[in-house]
Amino acid sequence: MAPVVNATVESARRALAARLLSAGNDSAELDARLLVGAALGLDLTGMVTGAKRTLTQDEADRLEGLARRRLAGEPVARILGIKEFWGLPLHLTAATLVPRPDTETVVERALELLRADGAADRALRIADLGTGSGAILLALLSELPHAHGFGTDISTEALQTASRNAAEFGFADRATWIACDYGSALTGAFDLIVSNPPYIPSADIAGLAIEVRAHDPRAALDGGADGLDAYRALISQSAGLLTSGGFLVVEVGQGQSGDVEALMTASGLSPTGPPKADLGGVPRAVS
Ligand code: GLN
Questions:
Q1: Which residues contact 8 (CB under 8 A, 6 or more apart)?
Q2: Which domain of life is it from (predicted)?
């Protein structure tokens, strides 16, 4: 293929970043780097060492295709089919939410509680209700060498994705995937139950960014009229599934921590402390 005059890897990256920025993208530099890498099949090192290399017409065309998808509102994680969470590159499908950095707060809180209890090296049983790509559960399994994880989801496609991710990171024999609504099909007692359930009030979904509204599965977002439907179901289920001294840690949306704590108290669970805030200072993990 004939090279495109004047477009090097580096100049193409800069041009795309400028284009994304002027379209209002607030992660234009990072997005441009990831999209150039994907279009050209280059990792970070390859992009640096090949910065002055000229793009072929094929590469330029491929990059333009990806750029247009991003400009039309598709998140980079969807375009790549991969999102890193807790250092694990997770495969995504249309049935799974894109894991958010905020959700790492749930993992952090769960590990703090287990470690303070001296339980991190025990053969823990952990359940992740509405596991999606398996993000929270797999992050926990990566930190807790003797734990076994049970991930539930109403979407069998999501469970296939989670199972593929588990196999990829070498956790297949420590993870069990169960198709059900939150904890409805679980039996036995769990030392830790975690969940990032849908919590957006139904009426607010239309106002979300296009990246979320048009590309995340609605079932992973829509928490009913007041956003709390999933918590009502999963907190009362969890109260019957925890070991004595077991922990429940859930992600909440902005402004929901008080309501969710009240639901936990009403189910006979006692708060382990104030909610843990995410990096933006929003109370995010209630336990
Ligand atoms: N954190 C997601 C968002 O606001 C929502 C995910 C959820 O409802 N659990 O985009």
A1: 51, 52, 53, 54, 55
A2: Bacteria
Residue among 116, 128, 210 at smallest CA distance from 176: 128
Whether ligand 1 lies within 6 angstroms of the CB of 282 is answered as no
Q: Is there a contact between 51 and 128 (Cβ–Cβ < 8 Å)?
A: no
Q: Which of 183, 263, 181 is nearest to 227 (CA)?
A: 263
Residue 38 belongs to what domain range? Answer: 3-72
Segments of the chain with pLDDT less than 70: 1-5
- Coil, strand, or helix at residue 127? strand
Query: pTM for the complete prediction?
Result: 0.94
Q: Whose CA is nearest to atom 6 of ligand 1?
A: 221
ipTM for the complex shown: 0.91
Amino acid 44: pLDDT: 86
CA distance 9 to 109: 41
199 & 256 share domain: yes
Q: Is 62 in the pocket of ligand 1 (CB under 6 A)?
A: no
Q: What is the CATH number of the domain that holds 105?
A: 3.40.50.150
Q: Whose CA is nearest to atom 10 of ligand 1?
A: 212
Residue 196: inside a domain, yes or no?
yes
Most informative mutation of 92, 196, 222 for ligand 1 (most atoms within 8 A of CB): 196
pLDDT, tens digit (0-9, with 9 covering 90-100), for 94-121: 999 999 999 999 999 999 999 999 999 9
pLDDT digits (tens, 9 = 90+) for 120-176: 999 999 999 999 999 999 999 999 999 999 999 999 999 999 999 999 999 999 999
